């Protein structure tokens, strides 16, 4: 559906050239929800704006629905753009027009008659759950409702692609979830291809099939959501993931209060993680019966990524050293990853870090 090949965007200024996007190649198939994450300034907005040529790349090609947008004449490009909807962080609604008029706006040159436009607007407002707000004005709506109107408007011309530029960043967590639910529904109902840019891994985790991580204009890592969450290779990706799984924060809290850990000489602290149908419970029970090793779970986070369960636990293994090693090998042979945590070193490091702050 979308193919970006060696796309670069350079902004020239007197002082310096800014390489906002640097040689990015990405393919997004039809019907996929694709996330682009990165810190502020990574180049996400610039990259996503090349998909509808709001930003013309300095180099590379942009192919959407088998058309190379860069080679299109202005009239052809206008037609192609109708098939690419876009929503923004601040909704961009017209304050002086009603909700129905806002949604009808993209249809003004569609060739539809007035009654046809009215029917289409009613259908779109129904799709986003706002049929009762058609005569209201944007100022009378909550942020979540305004984003629903923006979504209805972006769908007016039946697009095949929807670009979402930080679409939930101005919303509270509950409203964010409801907008993500709506996007998920539209993706499934309309086979809409969705590209979401965000700095929140939580958003990616909720809705995306695949994700790309950006830094300094480059895509540093990309992959399906389960692989990225369970086997990230880049440090930046790991940082983003820990914000969504909360494991790092839990570990920091435990290290801040070593009495909570209360480790004995035969104890080891570890972070264990697993993917897929196997749950940790029977395996942990087996460590006790097979090896005489007890497992104390200090923190647990189990969630579903695209219907695949992914578990992350912080545990203390207690038992005789050689039995502990056998128990850990047993977990590993059952596809459970075990990372031993050198807690003394971590506590020293943690104390240094907090002093530095
Ligand atoms: N029109 C422009 N002219 C000059 N520099 C620009 C322009 N647009 C973006 N930039 C620069 O390009 C880089 C990437 O910006 P971009 O907005 O794409 O990042 P981002 O990852 O979307 O960040 P944010 O999440 O803060 O929007 C930044 O250094 C930015 O200052």
From TrEMBL:
UniProt protein name: Methionine ABC transporter ATP-binding protein
Domain ABC transporter: 2-241
Matching SUPFAM superfamilies: ACT-like, P-loop containing nucleoside triphosphate hydrolases
Organism domain of life: Bacteria
Molecular-function GO terms, alphabetical: ATP binding
Pfam families recorded: ABC_tran, NIL
UniProt entry tagged with the keyword Cell membrane: yes
Taxonomic source organism: Carnobacterium antarcticum
Keyword Transcription among record annotations: no
Keywords assigned by UniProt, alphabetized: Amino-acid transport, ATP-binding, Cell membrane, Membrane, Nucleotide-binding, Translocase, Transport
InterPro entries hit by this protein: AAA+_ATPase, ABC_transporter-like_ATP-bd, ABC_transporter-like_CS, ACT-like_dom_sf, MetN_ABC, MetN_ABC_transporter-like, NIL_domain, P-loop_NTPase
């Amino acid at each position: 559906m979308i193919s970006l090949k060696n796309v670069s965007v350079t902004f020239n200024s007197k002082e310096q050239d800014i390489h906002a996007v640097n040689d990015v190649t990405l393919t997004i198939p039809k019907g996929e929800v694709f996330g682009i994450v990165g810190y502020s300034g990574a180049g996400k907005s610039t990259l996503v704006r090349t998909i509808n040529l709001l930003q013309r790349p300095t180099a590379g090609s942009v192919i959407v629905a088998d058309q190379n947008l860069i080679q299109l004449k202005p009239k052809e490009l206008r037609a192609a753009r109708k098939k690419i909807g876009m929503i923004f962080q601040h909704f961009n609604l017209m304050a002086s027009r009603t909700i129905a008029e806002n949604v009808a706006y993209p249809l003004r040159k569609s060739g539809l008659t007035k009654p046809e436009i009215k029917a289409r607007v009613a259908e779109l407002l129904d799709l986003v759950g706002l049929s009762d707000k058609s005569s209201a004005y944007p100022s009378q709506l909550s942020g979540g409702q305004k984003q629903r109107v923006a979504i209805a408007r972006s769908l007016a011309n039946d697009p095949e692609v929807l670009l979402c530029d930080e679409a939930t960043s101005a919303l509270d967590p509950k409203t964010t979830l409801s907008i993500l639910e709506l996007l998920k529904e539209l993706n499934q109902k309309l086979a809409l291809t969705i590209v979401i840019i965000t700095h929140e891994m939580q958003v990616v985790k909720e809705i995306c099939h695949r994700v790309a991580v950006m830094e300094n204009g480059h895509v540093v890592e990309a992959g399906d959501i389960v692989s990225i969450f369970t086997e990230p290779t880049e440090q930046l990706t790991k940082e983003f993931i820990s914000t969504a799984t909360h494991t790092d924060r839990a570990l920091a809290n435990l290290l801040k209060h070593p009495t909570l850990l209360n480790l004995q000489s035969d104890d080891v602290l570890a972070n264990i993680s697993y993917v897929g149908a196997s749950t940790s419970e029977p395996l942990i029970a087996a460590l006790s019966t097979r090896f005489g090793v007890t497992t104390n779970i200090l923190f647990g986070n189990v969630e579903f990524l695209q219907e695949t369960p992914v578990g992350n636990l912080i545990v203390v293994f207690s038992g005789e050293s050689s039995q502990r090693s056998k128990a850990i090998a047993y977990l590993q042979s059952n596809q459970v990853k075990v990372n031993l945590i050198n807690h003394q070193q971590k506590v020293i490091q943690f104390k240094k870090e907090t002093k530095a702050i």
